[in-house]
Design brief:
- This protein has 792 residues and is an alpha+beta fold.
- Among the domains are: 6-73 and 119-282, putative glycoside hydrolase family protein from bacillus halodurans (Beta-galactosidase, Chain A, domain 5, Distorted Sandwich), CATH 2.70.98.50; 726-786.
- The strands form 7 sheets. Strands 1, 2, 3, 4, 5, 6, 7, 8, 9, 10, 11, 12, 13 and 14 form a 14-stranded antiparallel beta sheet that branches.
- A hairpin with a 4-residue loop joins strand 13 (242-247) and strand 14 (252-270).
- Helix 6 crosses helix 18 (663-676) and helix 7 crosses helix 19 (692-705).
- The protein is globular.
């Protein structure tokens, strides 16, 4: 067959797709499109925790970009500034005296990490598939089936009906590419990476590339040299046609001909040792890849797919969510997003967004993976990503795991717990070298090599980031009641954090125990007395720091009580809590962000860190009415001074309004998140893509429907009027309860609570609460039984 030119082909394809009749309807959990992705942020993600891939769905030259979680530039470096401990007293004294410029200069010179910056998480490569069609495809459709974990591309070309399926198998640790047609077809499949490849290889239906990341010397990022080794391998698992493998200077691959059914498996490896947070010369990536492929060899493709789908559904199918009955699913997903941007309400898109976030968390944070989801989950197509696609620990990494428990995916927190456990070793060196304390901490970001010193700039001087990172660990216990996890995993990490905080606190001129140095993440205030000519990030006792300490100490006291340990330490924490500065309401009625009522340099700043006590903590509730009202005014002021907030910030505001029981404003923020910060493939964007907004948005939606932080099951606490009818099953409440809720006309009509044991539980709807006895197993209640009445 003659191969038509790329330009003419694309023109014919575009015309053909425009003339194709739209596909009516879609599966309940499906994203679908009428055309291939034009750019990376339009491709569809698959992942198994360790590897991820983005599928473009191009019938002419398909691109499947793929990642392996540990592919990072750089090397292990102890970046603790050796002058930090000696200069710390001078920094503290300057801040207590209000000498902010001096404190900044000292911190910049003596506390900033050496080197101050990290290198980036990287793409690993691409699978490129050149299909040999002699005419432009018709009846095109690509989709991502969330409940199956499969990306599918379907079309007709040259009288052939063709289907491509891509999925990432967790049980077998491979990415699977299945090609099927009703007549024989041919294709060239190439495995490529643009840089740092040492060798392309091929043999008997298998293609490889091997290489080593090369870094340039940089005073900001550290020494150059040859660092992490990597390998990727692709093998034909099954083919009813002919296969010839090849390799040249720029690729290796497989030439397929006269085939109707082909199954390819792709895997990857590096020499990264997770336990050591470092590369390890004893690990041979080439051998690891061959071992993985060897274990898959001989498995029937139908069995491979069935085992993947069963494993995937075991997690995904736990939660079902519906909001009314609309006909928007007749539109493709990108068309639905566009309609919402123009002002349309699409409740089906909200449920799809929620389930998509669950899907992304499953795909980027679970075994066989070992690392937690980074700023982009596990997906990145660049060698130097925005913000290095790192682990940002001043809101982003925490937000990634907000939906994990309530959305019934507790397994996804395991990589985070394991990572934090390993970070305590370098974190203890940071605590000792910089602050002279016991325990451990880290600052506002880290990488796979366990960097825990101060990074980027003085705004990265955030020693309470470590204590903040302990919250997901204790929350996992609250939801699961897994005592073994609490004892073996969470408690040691929390105790080390407690030890650090106790050693870090100092007495302020007011007589409080305070953090110093301190700052409210990435936000600045005008230095008093400079007529707004100077601003700074640094202070002592930023409000968020005090809230973090309250959260950490309270969680530890509860854990110590459960485990019957460290009673003396728990009493010391209770006494210390009494000496922390209180939260204050400022002159403008908002919650003070700092210990003094400073004026913000940016009143509409994206971080609203001082409301951490509202969510995810519960220090600010209706039982603290002055703070509750101040929290409302804080949000109003932030939003009044900003026309929009970045995705993760909008997502946080959803959670705030849910905790304020304001369904209308929470619903408005969900709509805003979809309108302003959601791409056609439902990725959250700032821009660029960051996964935290997806996770925070899903957590906020769940928080609008169920809350359990006040020792009660609170149903529909912030239900918007636009969510008039709906149901959700499988949400989790603290105490290891599984909750199903159905509502009509904005009122709950049934409630089901599965309890692992007999207990008494308080159930709340709006202002009404009732004590109920839960039997072991499923407990179904009508609203009549609970005596909840409509409130007008």
């Amino acid at each position: 067959m003659m191969e038509i030119s790329r330009t003419l082909y694309l023109l014919m394809l575009t015309v053909s797709l425009l003339c194709t009749s739209p596909v009516q309807g879609q599966e309940e959990n499906e994203l679908w499109y009428k055309a291939p992705a034009k750019e990376w942020t339009g491709a569809l993600p698959v992942g198994n925790g360790r590897m991820g891939a983005m599928v473009f769905g191009d019938p002419g030259r398909e691109r499947i970009q793929f990642n392996e979680e540990s592919v990072w530039a750089g090397s292990r470096i102890d970046n603790n500034n050796p002058q930090a401990l000696k200069q710390l007293p001078a920094v503290r004294q300057a801040l207590f005296r209000g000498e902010y410029t001096k404190a900044w200069e000292l911190s910049d010179q003596y506390l900033l990490g050496t080197p101050p910056r990290i290198r980036s998480y990287q793409t690993l490569g691409d699978v490129l598939i050149r299909y040999h069609w002699d005419e432009a495809p018709a009846d095109y459709r690509r989709s991502l089936i969330l409940d199956k974990g499969i990306s599918k591309t379907e079309y007709k070309a040259g009288g052939i009906s063709f289907q491509q399926e891509v999925y990432a198998s967790a049980p077998h640790d491979v990415i699977v590419i299945q090609l099927s047609a009703d007549k024989a077809f041919s294709a060239d499949v190439s495995l490529v990476r643009e840089k740092d490849v040492d060798q392309y290889r091929h043999q008997d239906g298998t293609a490889w590339f091997e290489g080593r990341i090369r870094d340039e010397d940089s005073p900001l990022m550290g020494p150059g040299g040859k660092h992490m080794r990597f390998c990727s391998a692709m093998r034909v698992l099954a083919c009813d046609g002919k296969v010839v493998s090849f390799a040249d200077e720029g690729s290796s691959g497989l030439r397929i001909s006269e085939a109707r059914h082909v199954t390819l498996v792709l895997t990857a490896a590096t020499d990264y040792n997770f336990d050591q947070l470092d590369t390890d010369a004893s690990i041979r990536p080439f051998e690891v890849c061959n071992s993985i492929l060897g274990k898959v060899q001989g498995i029937d493709p139908s069995v491979l797919r069935s085992e993947h789908e069963s494993d995937h559904r075991h997690l995904f199918d736990r939660v079902k969510f519906r909001l009314g009955n609309g006909d928007e699913d007749r539109l493709s997903t990108d068309e639905r997003v566009a309609a919402v941007r123009s002002g349309k309400q699409d409740n089906g898109l909200i449920t799809l967004y929620f389930q998509y976030a669950r899907y992304l968390l499953m795909a980027s944070s679970r075994k066989p993976g070992k690392l937690p989801a980074n700023l982009q989950g596990v997906w990145n197509d660049l060698y130097t990503a925005k913000w290095n696609s790192d682990f940002h620990t001043n809101i982003n990494l925490q937000m990634n795991y907000w939906p994990a428990e309530v959305a019934n995916l507790p397994e996804t927190t395991e990589p985070l717990s394991d990572f934090l456990t390993r970070l305590t070793a370098p974190g203890s060196r940071t605590a000792k070298a910089m602050y002279g304390t016991e325990g451990w901490t880290l600052h506002h970001l880290t990488d796979v090599f366990g960097r825990t010193g101060v990074a980027d700039g003085v705004w990265g001087l955030s020693p309470m980031a470590g204590p903040w990172m302990t919250f997901p660990l204790f929350r996992h216990y609250e939801f699961t009641l897994d005592r073994h996890y609490l004892e073996q995993t969470a408690y040691p990490v929390m105790k080390g954090s407690v030890q650090f905080v106790l050693g870090f606190l100092v007495e302020s001129p007011e007589g409080y125990l305070v953090t110093n140095p301190s700052h409210s993440p990435e936000n600045a205030f005008f230095v008093p007395g400079t007529d707004k000519k100077e601003k700074t990030y640094l202070c002592y006792a930023a409000t968020i720091d005090t809230q973090i300490i309250h959260g950490l100490f309270s969680n530890f006291i509860k854990a110590a009580t459960v485990l019957n340990r460290d009673a003396e330490l728990a009493e010391k924490l209770k006494a210390t809590l009494k000496r922390l500065p209180p939260m204050k309401v400022g002159a403008n009625g908002t919650l003070q962000e700092w210990i003094h009522d400073y004026e913000e340099a940016e009143p509409g700043h994206r971080h609203i860190s001082h409301l951490l006590g509202l969510y995810p903590l519960s220090l600010i509730t209706k039982d603290t009415p002055a703070l509750f009202e101040a929290a409302k005014k804080t949000i109003e002021r932030r939003m009044a001074h900003s026309t929009w907030h970045v995705g993760w910030s909008s997502a946080w505001i959803i959670n705030f309004y849910a905790r304020l029981y304001d369904g209308k404003k929470a619903g408005d923020q969900v709509q805003k998140l979809l309108q302003q910060s959601t791409l056609g493939n439902l990725f959250n964007t700032i821009p660029p893509f960051q996964i935290d907004g997806n996770m925070g948005g899903a957590a906020g939606i769940a928080e609008m429907l169920l809350q359990s932080h006040n020792d009660e099951i609170h149903i529909l606490p912030a239900l918007p009027a636009s969510w008039k009818e709906g149901s959700i099953t499988g949400l989790k409440a603290r105490g290891n309860c599984t909750v199903d809720i159905k509502w009509q006309n904005g009122m709950p009509v049934s409630l089901s609570v599965y309890s692992p044991e007999e207990r008494v539980c308080r159930v709340r709807y709006r202002q009404q609460a009732k004590e109920v006895r839960l039997e072991k197993g499923n407990n179904v209640f009508s609203m009549k039984e609970l005596a909840f009445e409509a409130e007008r």
